[in-house]
Request: fold
Amino acid sequence: MEQEEQSLESFLTWGAQLGISDSSNTKQPQHPPSSCLGSSLCIAHFRHSGGRGLCAVRDLRKGEIILTIPKSALMTRESVMEDKKLCVAVNRHSSLSSVQIMIVCLLYEMGKGKTSRWHPYLMHLPHTYDILAMFGEFEKCALQVDEALWVTEKAILKAKSEWKEAHALMEDLMFKPQLLTFKAWVWAAATISSRTLHIPWDEAGCLCPVGDLFNYDAPGVEPSSIEDVEHLLSNSSFHDAVVSNGNKNVMVDAEKLDPLSQRLTDGGFEEDVNAYCFYARAHYKKGDQVLLCYGTYTNLELLEHYGFLLQENPNDKIFIPLEPAIYSSTSWTKESLYIHHDGKPSFALLAALRLWATPQNKRRSVGHLAYSGSQLSADNEIFIMKWLSKTCDAVLKNLPTSIDEDTLLVNAMDNTQDSFTFMEITKLMSSRDEIFSFLEAHNMKDVHSFNDIFLSRKARRSMDRWKLAVQWRLRYKKVLVDCISYCNETLDSFMK
Ligand SMILES: C[S@@+](CC[C@H](N)C(=O)[O-])C[C@H]1O[C@@H](n2cnc3c(N)ncnc32)[C@H](O)[C@@H]1O
Reply:
């Protein structure tokens, strides 16, 4: 433990030497401080929201600069390929994608050990990940829902084929055998997927020492339009925050509005200071975890790219099987026909169902109403609500386990310290196939071997992924139940 703390301290000293700083004072100090953190942030552990993360060491105001990482500290393809041997070899394999090359760059630096210029940073990267490409057959199946199974299968196949394609380059570079393995490849790919930040000059992104310690906050409640930003800027306390820093980079202004999502961004590379700059996305009290929004993701996408999911995710959506005639009744894309995290059907799904439930010869005359989101008639609305409710109910009944069983299973997994409780809880489940498959997959045929002391590291990792899979399918089922309630409430409103 002491050794770990020392190594973390030397990582933060290394960061300070490279010019990384969490101070809002933009003047360069004459001597680098002994740590790059301490003025605004510190590293802390948040058990239920991301593990290691960054914590406010003082009250932080929304919009103020909290961390700067100079370009020279970023690990990019360009900076790693300053190594001539690597650069020459990469140029001989021009068919590889930018991300494949970035993965090779990371493995190459790992292979250098202490001589890597990023060694203090590389030492603090996670050793394992829970992203979908790392799911084995057992954990994949625990997702239960076809859509999730396909996404997992696709992620595994993609990782395998990209690894094979890059093999010749890695052999050219004479990688040590352990860096040539699929396991090493998936580790590096997961690092790139879950930790790189966007940079304008390279679609592979960059690894950003210290800046990649922010855990994720979903976008959702920030101002969503220019008017909101104008309102914010006219709000005196916010304006004070902007002006008191006296630096235009410190402003959260209309330029920082992401034109696609129309949301405020909280970090980005800034050409004029040649650095990655992070801003507080909210007011934080001393001791709060400071978060960063990496983008808008559903829970399945979070699992695929980052290896976690959110219990409350305002951007979650689920898909249910629809009849081909529904897809062909409108020009909405398949991706737009979904159910929101709170059980409400998407705008496009409602419109598509309303048109599909209209006799074909009448669709033209009501098309404009459907596309503007209007109900077409009471009968039409009652029909589609009944249909949607019945379909969600059928999906729920077709899944091998119920919400109650999944809840029991997650609770049991939280109780693995006590093998007796785990087995007692799981006895309440109607189908114990999944539990037996897990025990079998890890050679734990009898209950007594299900003991924390004997749960191998591999089995424990597998259980973490299994738990994520069960949590995901549980959220999926809850959205279906909420959709049924939404349909019933709408139906009730017609009865009044
Ligand atoms: C950029 S890193 C953030 C720092 C990371 N916790 C660490 O220890 O290095 C992203 C990873 O942090 C974890 N993470 C981030 N936000 C999270 C959240 N809200 N809940 C759970 N895990 C989260 C996930 O493992 C994700 O892949």
About this structure: The radius of gyration is 26 Å. The pocket of S-adenosylmethionine is lined by residues 49-53, 126, 194-195, 212-213, 215-216, 306-308 (CB under 6 Å).
